[in-house]
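User: I'm putting together a teaching handout on how multi-component assemblies are represented. Below are the sequence lines for each component of a complex, exactly as they appear in our records. Could you produce the 3D structure of the whole assembly as structure tokens, so the students can see both representations side by side? Please keep the chain order the same as the input.
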Amino acid sequence: MKISTKGRYALRLMLDIALNDAADPVRLKDTADRQSISVKYLEQIISQLVRAGYVKSIRGPQGGYRLMKQPSEYTVGMILRQVEGNMVPVSCLEDEAIDCERQGQCVTLRIWKELDTAMRSVLDKYTLADLVEWQQEIGDNYII
Amino acid sequence: MKISTKGRYALRLMLDIALNDAADPVRLKDTADRQSISVKYLEQIISQLVRAGYVKSIRGPQGGYRLMKQPSEYTVGMILRQVEGNMVPVSCLEDEAIDCERQGQCVTLRIWKELDTAMRSVLDKYTLADLVEWQQEIGDNYII
DNA sequence: TTCGTTTCCTAGTATGTCAATATGAAATAT
DNA sequence: ATATTTCATATTGACATACTAGGAAACGAA
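Assistant: Of course. Below is the structure of the complete assembly, with chains in the same order as your input.
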């Protein structure tokens, strides 16, 4: 019942790009240094975010990544779901779930549904813009 | 980010014992039949619940298991935590977590803390007694 | 045109967790 | 004594996690 490093890193990666948005796009090398995550691992993670249309890439020297939309348009849940899968607590709640014969009688399902709702309400309440704001309150020491 | 079978089965197991409480204690064999879970797997799961003092065992013929307390005294969260571990969404929130140097600057931690709180509020809101009630509303067809 | 930089793509790998099964011992009611 | 039931430990196969590795493709600058 844990969020994987992939999910957590994806969030830090998106936040890092949002925070370091400038004339030049953000290079993975710099994010890797700031976040203490290997470039190679970040490459894998960001490829999913590129495919999802969350970031765009610019290749070659002075290349890097840029957010496609405003930070306020990305909820934390959107980012996590993109790299972690659907983020539901039990597979019965997945869209592709095969109907379980026990479903009609399953009272634990009520708990899982409410848990899912509670998780969504938090993860979809906050956006990258919130994280950016919080980070800026703390100060620039975050940025190398 | 999924609850394991062990957690889900533990809940169904506790519920099954609560529902089938009678003169004789509940045999794992019967629970296994009703719940379509192997006896061997249930043995492993229940051993953790015995050690935790949640159920008591009676050995030998006419043996089985009984709840130690009233169903209303077991929250869903208690049961899950017993077999799943601490159920926090990121290891930073574990009691035994080594302090992360990034902690002071980590704004994502705020999200994880709020997520954890939201999850707890659901999982500790409901007890076995609620599940028993719901199950009895549905009807006896649950019990073979 | 060449060179270095940066992203892109695929494969591999070590470790661990999950979801059980298997084997047999210990206790105990009849 | 015997059958029943719990108790304890080991083993297994499949899969996921968390990476690393190697090289190709794009592209700006010299």
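A couple of points students might notice: Strands of chain A lie at 55-58, 64-67. Residues 27-29, 43, 46-47, 50, 57-65 of chain A lie near DNA strand C (CB under 10 Å from a C1').
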